Amino acid sequence: xxxxxxxxxxxxxxxxxxxxxxxxxxxxxxxxxxxxxxxxxxxxxxxxxxxxxxxxxxxxxxxxxxxxxxxxxxxxxxxxxxxxxxxxxxxxxxxxxxxxxxxxxxxxxxxxxxxxxxxxxxxxxxxxxxxxxxxxxxxxxxxxxxxxxxxxxxxxxxxxxxxxxxxxxxxxxxxxxxxxxxxxxxxxxxxxxxxxxxxxxxxxxxxxxxxxxxxxxxxxxxxxxxxxxxxxxxxxxxxxxxxxxxxxxxxxxxx
Length: 255
Description:
Layout: H1 4-61, H2 70-100, H3 103-129, H4 131-147, H5 156-169, H6 210-247
Helix pairs in contact: 1-2, 1-6, 2-3, 3-6, 4-6
C-alpha cells in the first residue's frame, strides 16, 4: 500500500530540489557573467595602466623640452607614474583572480581597488574645488607664452602647443591677433602653412583665445570629472562582483 503522507513528502522534497537546482543554475550563470565582466574590465585596465606608465616615462625622458618648475614637474609626473603602476597592478591581479577564482588574489584585488577608489575621490574633489584656479593657471601660462612666442624664453614644444590651441580653437593670441609682434604665426591662419601676410582676410583668426580657452578648460574639466565619476562607479561594481564571486566559490578543501 502507498502511504499518502509519504507520497506527499516525496512531492515536496522533489519540489524543493527543483528550486535549489534552479537557484544553483542561476548563481552559476551570474558568477560566470561576473567573471567574464571582470576579465574584460581588467584587460582594459592593464592596457590603460601600461599606457599611463609609458606616458609618464616618456615625459621624464623628454623633460628638457618643457619649461616648467622642476619640483612641480617631478611631483606631477611621479604621481602619474604611481597611479599608472597602481592601475597596472589592479588589472593584473584582477585578470588572474577572475581566471583562478583565488580568494587570496580576490582580497588583494579588492584592496587595491579600495586604494584606487580613495585616490579617485580625492582627485574628483580636487578637480571640482580647484576648477577655477586650474583654468586661471593654464590661461596665465598661455598668455605668458604668447608674449614670449618670438623670443628665446619659450621652447619649441611650448610654441607648438600654442599653435595647436590656436588652430583647434580658431583664435589668435590671448586678447587678439595684435598680441604678436611683428606678426601672428602661421597657426593664426585657417590655411595650413600660410604666413599671416599671405593669408586671405576671411581665413585670418583675429579674435583672441581667452574666451575660447576658458570654455575649452571648463569643458575639459567637466569631462575629467565625469570620467572619474564613471571610474568610481566601475570600481564599486568591480569590488561587489569580486566579493560575490569569492562568496559563491567553494574552496577545494570543502569540495
